[in-house]
Amino acid sequence: MELANFKAAQKEPVEQPWTLLREAQAAALELPKTGVACAIEVGQADNVHYWNKKPVGERLARMALADTYGMKDAFVETRSPQLRDFKIEGEKVLLNFDHVGKGLRLRAGVAAPEGFAIRGGDGVWLWAEGVTLNDGSITVWDPRVKTPEAVRYAWAQNPKTSIENSEGFPLRPFRTDRNASN
After folding, report:
1. Are 157 and 19 in contact (CB under 8 A)?
2. CA dihedral 171, 102, 109, 49 (to 10 degrees)
């Protein structure tokens, strides 16, 4: 299980310790026969031991039923969407994802995509003003960033999250600058 959101929401897109811990947890997915249930949206700002564990238990159960007990046909998808690759196209960044089910969508109660930060050549992170959802991809841009270099999503201890797959699994936090220190 991945670390849930916790502490006060951040106002600016800066790196925080839990982002790196979540990234280390997600690295386990590179090993065979592993799974990590994303819990990015079920936590509480004032309680590291949040009360609503049911969604995480259901996610873990679906992974176990599909992967261990061979019930893959019983589910459209059993995992959270995860960044597969990205491409910088002019002033925009195209992000492609695995585990989208029948597509990506906004979470219930969310009016517009949020939680995306973009960085240009000046090294300054800004909340992205432009985000477009497609079936299995997302395009991110900001008019203030003419030469984008990197994008991050939900890169905070208690981030704004807005995207899920067709099965209701939240988009896993990610950064395209994974090998960078900031």
Report:
1. yes
2. -40
Instruction: Name the H helices within the chain.
Output: 17-26, 54-67
How is domain 1-182 classified at the CATH fold level?
Immunoglobulin-like (2.60.40)
Q: Of 179, 164, 149, which Cα lies nearest the Cα of 41? A: 164
Is the whole model's pTM more than 0.90, yes or no? Answer: yes
DSSP 3-state assignment of 63?
helix
The Cα–Cα gap between 88 and 68 comes to 38
Token reading at 91: 């002033």
Amino acid at 90: G
Name residues whose C-beta falls within 8 Å of residue 68's C-beta, 6 or more positions apart in sequence: none
Backbone angles phi, psi at 59, to 5 degrees: -65, -45
- Give per-residue pLDDT as tens, 87-105: 999 999 999 999 999 999 9
Domain ranges of the chain: 1-182
Over residues 18-30, the pLDDT tens digits come to 899 999 998 988 8
